UniProtKB/TrEMBL annotation:
Species name: Streptomyces chiangmaiensis
Occurrences of domain Solute-binding protein family 3/N-terminal (ranges): 57-287
Signal sequence residues: none
Gene name in the database record: ehuB
Keyword entries, A-Z: Signal
Pfam families recorded: SBP_bac_3
Protein's name in the database: Ectoine/hydroxyectoine ABC transporter substrate-binding protein EhuB
InterPro entries per the UniProt record, alphabetical: Ectoine_EhuB (IPR014337), Solute-binding_3/MltF_N (IPR001638), TAT_signal (IPR006311)
Keyword DNA repair: no
Length: 301
């Protein structure tokens, strides 16, 4: 995922703060049943998968991000990444998944300090993160989109449009879109930073921003009930002058290549059969967001 960032997804209909408050109790209850993750592997390629099979549960690091990984109103773990994890780990012989909620920026540190076994948060794959963890191949790809006023009065379709028309620009805390705007020539000090795309929608509706940038999926979902705004057509931001498409996937500790490879093998089967799309579709994903990109490609940037 090109430039460094700490948050890649949004949360239609709620804020990260309220989501984390709601899932903290679930995480605490889960921890009571399984107080620690499997110890660090010492064998070549790791032996975490065999130990997860033995204990019958894998702990998933999530960040309360709709539609990527969250606890729903009934207290159930769901989202595109956890639902995919349930299918793949069941095929790998691990029957139960257990959520461990944390802030998005704490996912990689938490993984490497063994607070959980796998990051299951739809995390964008980029060179910086690839220096810290290993990734499965992406289970989706994503373009950007803007939230603008109805009719898009300023004609904002790209980051360059935002710069040239001196539009008031907003995006989320730690979003990749910050760097995309800066690369297009927007001053970072002038960007309105808000918690998430719900706050971005509110900023555009209130006139505090002309445009909010986020992923195509989250922007189109959050404007569905808005009478004042719309989402623009998805587009690829420019990185080093070239169109860039992001991709998100599961993260593993660098020593656990065995588990990552086994996960990838099952993911490949789901892609080939079309079942991956059936799993992701209920969360707003379209066929345009399915991908054959590899983690290796995205790690190169």
């Amino acid at each position: 995922m090109a430039p460094p960032q700490t948050n890649d997804a949004g949360k239609p209909g709620t804020t990260r703060r309220s989501l984390l408050a709601g899932i903290a109790a679930v995480g605490a209850l889960g921890a009571a049943g399984c107080s620690r993750v499997a110890a660090a592997s010492t064998t070549h390629g790791g032996d975490l998968l065999s130990r997860l099979k033995a204990q019958g549960v894998v702990r998933l690091g999530i960040a309360g991000e709709i539609p990527f990984g969250y606890i729903d109103k009934n207290g159930n773990l769901t989202g595109e990444a956890p639902e995919l994890a349930k299918v793949i780990f069941r095929r790998l012989g691990v029957d139960r998944v257990q959520p461990v909620p944390t802030e998005f920026g704490s996912l990689i540190p938490g993984l490497n300090s063994q607070q959980f076994d796998v990051v299951s948060a739809g995390m964008y794959i980029n060179p910086e993160r690839c220096q810290q963890v290993i990734f499965a191949d992406p289970d989706y790809q994503m373009l950007d989109s803007f939230i603008v006023r109805k009719g898009n009065p300023k004609g904002l379709h790209t980051y360059r449009d935002v710069v040239e028309k001196r539009a008031k620009f907003a995006t989320g805390t730690g979003y990749a879109e910050i760097q995309y705007a800066v690369e297009a020539g927007y001053k970072e000090s002038e960007i309105l930073i808000v918690p998430d795309q719900v706050a971005g929608l509110n900023a555009v509706e209130a006139g505090r921003a002309d445009v909010f940038a986020g992923t195509a999926l989250t922007t189109r979902e959050v404007v569905k009930n808005s009478r004042k705004t719309e989402a623009t057509k998805p587009f690829a931001p420019l990185v080093k002058g070239k169109p860039h498409i992001d991709g998100g996937g599961f993260a593993f500790r660098p020593t656990e290549t065995g588990l990552r490879n086994a996960f990838n093998a099952e993911l490949k089967k789901l892609k080939a059969s079309g079942e991956l799309f059936r799993i992701l579709r209920p969360f707003g994903f379209t066929k345009a967001e399915m991908t054959d990109m590899t983690a290796k490609e995205l790690c190169r940037g």
